[in-house]
Amino acid sequence: MKRYSVFAVAREAARYHTGWERAWKSPEPKKKYDVIIIGAGGHGLATAYYLGKNFGIRNVAILEKGWLGGGNTGRNTTIIRSNYLQDPSAAIYEKSRSLYEDLSQDLNYNIMFSPRGVMMLAQTEHEVRGYLRTAHANALQGVETRFIKPDEVKKLVPIINIDGPRYPVLGALWQPRGGTARHDAVAWGYARACSDMGMDVIQKCEVTGVRQEGGRVVGVDTNRGAIDCDKLGIVVAGHSGVLAEMAGFRLPIESVALQALVSEPIKPCMDVVVMANTVHGYMSQSDKGEMVIGGGADGYNNYTQRGSFHHIEETVRALIETFPMISRLKMLRQWGGIVDMTGDRSPILSKTPLENCFINCGWGTGGFKAIPGSGWGFAELMAKGSSPLCDEFSMFRFREGKFIDESVAAGVAH
Ligand SMILES: Cc1cc2nc3c(=O)[nH]c(=O)nc-3n(C[C@H](O)[C@H](O)[C@H](O)COP(=O)(O)OP(=O)(O)OC[C@H]3O[C@@H](n4cnc5c(N)ncnc54)[C@H](O)[C@@H]3O)c2cc1C
């Protein structure tokens, strides 16, 4: 595949852009692969990429029932941070954040990583104590964060109201190298790199059954016929419970809708990401000028990619309290995704009761930031049977009571 570069852009400009080749191929499924990954979201594609790059396993198919990145990967608000409380979480999220730093160069695809800084507001005494604790934990884990005072918050975000009537801003947990990236580009960049390594990225290919013999996986049934494999990775986020049932085991996962919305574009007014977890809303400004806004998950299980209206109202109300100037904005679009939540709000990267079948899920409301790190670790787990990044995130931790509890510490897990 030809490399993208400034020279390629100049060359194509001179010949009216007639020479660009397709970014990835659209092959027919083969009869058998060494590895099949179900789900071409960011986590599935990153897993395939690092299987090829780090372990030389390239006879791989990534099967996607819809289109590339059409699940949560293309629907999220793209916040990237790694200031989690527990050691295993900090390790995988920080690995991920550091891979994001030069992912564009690695993939030869501009994923528009923007380390503009992420701020989590402390608006109650409880949050202040919680974030001070996280800042100390992060110092021990080698994650660069610090707790900042209200005057520094105001300096970084002049449009914020720090003397809010209900919840004044008492400080914030600040991660200067957190930020955002372009979500579609992350999926497209990994897909292009996988295709370039000879892997088959197959869209509109829905897995309808998992075939097994003698307790080990031997292949999958799809709407395009049966395909054999030696190893299977299930990476389907909100549909994890459905695929697990096909493979014959149960997961401690609930699927709920989480939604986001964007405003009309306005002039640059905020160059960091702000999360207000007590009033429950978060906001950043896109390169186009739209304010990108996210809120809470629905309080009931569902498989709709919509989200409920009362959450939009709650989220916007919360943000108007924190940023009064947005009360004049018109909202342009709203959408939802199906997120996969575990009880301890930490992911599952694990072997399963079915031999040679692995599962990567449970990223809930916060897995975009983890895509490169999760792919790195999960590829190692699939190739070698164990990975220091993943071993603590086994699905069997729920049976053994070894929770990695981020639910209280992280406020919201975005
Ligand atoms: C509104 C919203 C805001 C969010 N904001 C953030 C944020 O700011 N920061 C952050 O870090 N995270 C955020 N997240 C979470 C993040 O988007 C997800 O954790 C992450 O994208 C999950 O990626 P994935 O690859 O596991 O899943 P997905 O991208 O959902 O990919 C799974 C794929 O599997 C496919 N699939 C399902 N069943 C089958 C089948 N039977 N056969 C074949 N394919 C199948 C689906 O079509 C889908 O494409 C947000 C999520 C939402 C919905």
Helix content: 25-40%
Alpha-carbon distance between the termini?
35 Å
What overall form do the CA principal axes indicate? Answer: globular
CATH architecture level-2 label of the largest domain: 3-Layer(bba) Sandwich
Contiguous runs where pLDDT drops below 50 for at least 5 residues: none
Q: CATH topology of the largest domain, anyone?
A: FAD/NAD(P)-binding domain
Structure class: alpha/beta
Number of structural domains: 2
What's the short version?
The protein is about 30% helix and about 25% strand. It has 11 helices and 18 strands. It has helices at about 5-15, 40-55, 85-100, 105, 125-140, 150-155, 185-195, 240-245, 310-320, 370-385, 395-400; strands at about 30-40, 60-65, 80, 120, 145-150, 170-175, 180, 200, 205-215, 215-220, 225-235, 255-265, 275, 280-285, 290-295, 330-340, 350, 355-360.
Describe the protein's architecture and organization:
The chain is an alpha/beta fold and 414 residues long. The chain has 2 domains: 25-109 and 183-252 and 344-400, FAD/NAD(P)-binding domain, CATH 3.50.50.60; 118-177 and 255-342, D-Amino Acid Oxidase, subunit A, domain 2 (D-Amino Acid Oxidase, Chain A, domain 2, 2-Layer Sandwich), CATH 3.30.9.10. It is built from 11 helices and 18 strands. The protein has helices spanning 6-14, 42-55, 87-101, 103-107, 125-141, 150-156, 183-196, 240-247, 309-322, 371-384, 397-400, and strands spanning 32-38, 60-63, 79-80, 118-122, 146-148, 171-175, 179-180, 200-202, 207-213, 216-222, 225-234, 253-265, 273-276, 281-285, 290-297, 331-342, 348-351, 357-361. Strands 1, 2, 8, 9, 10, 11, 17 and 18 form an 8-stranded mixed beta sheet that branches. An 8-stranded mixed beta sheet has the order 5-6-4-13-14-15-12-16. A two-stranded antiparallel sheet has the order 3-7. A hairpin with a 4-residue loop joins strand 13 (273-276) and strand 14 (281-285). The radius of gyration is 21 Å and the shape is globular. The protein starts with 5 loop residues before the first helix and ends in a 14-residue tail after the last helix. It binds flavin-adenine dinucleotide. Flavin-adenine dinucleotide is lined by residues 38-44, 63-66, 70-73, 75-79, 206-207, 235-237, 239, 243, 258-260, 294, 337, 339, 363, 365-369, 414. The site of flavin-adenine dinucleotide has 40 residues, from helix 2, strand 12 and strand 16.
